[in-house]
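Below is a complete specimen:
___
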Amino acid sequence: MLKKSVNHRIGLALHTYEMLAGGDRVMLAVSGGIDSLVLVWLLKFWLRKAPIDYRLLAVHLDMGFGEKEAELVAIQLERLGVPFLIEKTDFGRRAMEAEEGRSGCYHCARQRRNRLFELAREHGCSKIAMGHHQEDIIETFFLNLLWAGNLSTMVPKQELFDGRLALIRPMAYLEKREIREIGTELGIEPVANPCPLATESKRMQTRTLLEESIYPMDPAAKATIFNALANLRPDYLLRKPTGKTAR
């Protein structure tokens, strides 16, 4: 089912970042998009190959935007054959109302993330797996560069709470197109994001910049940027000023 190169890069990410260990209970954060649904299938598929045993629990938080969102996600998870939990919330609606649309994405995402942490603790999960891929990592770097004023990105594995929980991204080395190809072959039907700001966020603006202006400049641009994120040269970066700067 998986191309050899795709299978290799998934294994490389899992091994390089030591994402899974025997006895892990892994929560799969499922948005309903193609990335998170393919991730569910991948980690179930890898259970048959891996020399370790781990347990899976898919979790979908309905953010309160669409009436049928939870139902459609449940259909896909039932087809994939993994234990799952769906929880309806009003995080999205309340974030939009409180901020009148301003910073709503930040507050919505923060509430979702905090609830996932709580559920992981309640269900004894030591890992939360997310469906982020190569483009997501690049976009986050440019998002932070352009809008937050720092050089950082999401990493394939991030330990939290003194190591009691870790976020893992097994598809970190895959491109979006490869994930879509897997989803198509499997007959997975992604659920559209019902958020009214889904196409207006800073991330979408950054994605548009990359896809329309930067990636087309050179066929190797995407790979070059991705590789650069592991090729740091701190000696050639600026120092923070320690005193008053002249104007």
Remarks:
- Residues 32 and 73 are 6 Å apart (CA to CA).
- The chain has a mean pLDDT of 91.
- The domain at 4-232 is CATH 3.40.50.620 (Rossmann fold).
